[in-house]
Amino acid sequence: MYLWIKALHIVAVVTWFAALFYLPRLYVYHAMARDKGEQQAIDYFSVMERKLYRGIMTPSMIAVIVLGGWLLYLRPQWLGMGWLHAKLALVLLLVIYHHACLVYLKQFAAGRCRRTHVFFRWFNELPVIALLAIVILVVLKPF
């Protein structure tokens, strides 16, 4: 049972990260379209962003948390390991990032987002750093 849960957890992580990478990239294009006054593109990006956030990103995040919790239930000894504490802190930061994406989604939908495409290019890099750190922690278990 443990390996099935672990496999599903990994699939959920991959799906969540795909969305975490793609949604801010859509924000880059949305901000560029806004700056050019391309209303049809703006409307198109708003629909894509909403569907990605609600249909893929949020269900994936929930699956990651539920399956990760299940894994911890099956391996409670990990709770005493420093690498897991660091990983969980990074996951918490990713959940906060996930919700920051919702704030920007709502701002774009209301026509109130004033962040530039350059901001979103940098914002898009944050999950990359988290992914790198999490994979290193899980594979190497440095502490």
TrEMBL record:
Its cofactor is heme b. It is a multi-pass membrane protein. Heme binds at H9, K87. Keywords: Cell membrane, Heme, Iron, Membrane, Metal-binding, Oxidoreductase, Transmembrane, Transmembrane helix. The chain crosses the membrane at residues 6-24, 52-73, 85-106, 118-140. It is found in: Cell membrane. It catalyses: protoporphyrinogen IX + 3 A = protoporphyrin IX + 3 AH2. Binds 1 heme b (iron(II)-protoporphyrin IX) group per subunit. InterPro entries: HemJ-like. Pathway: Porphyrin-containing compound metabolism; protoporphyrin-IX biosynthesis; protoporphyrin-IX from protoporphyrinogen-IX: step 1/1. It comes from the Bacteria. Its main location: membrane. Belongs to the HemJ family. Homodimer. Catalyzes the oxidation of protoporphyrinogen IX to protoporphyrin IX. This is Protoporphyrinogen IX oxidase.
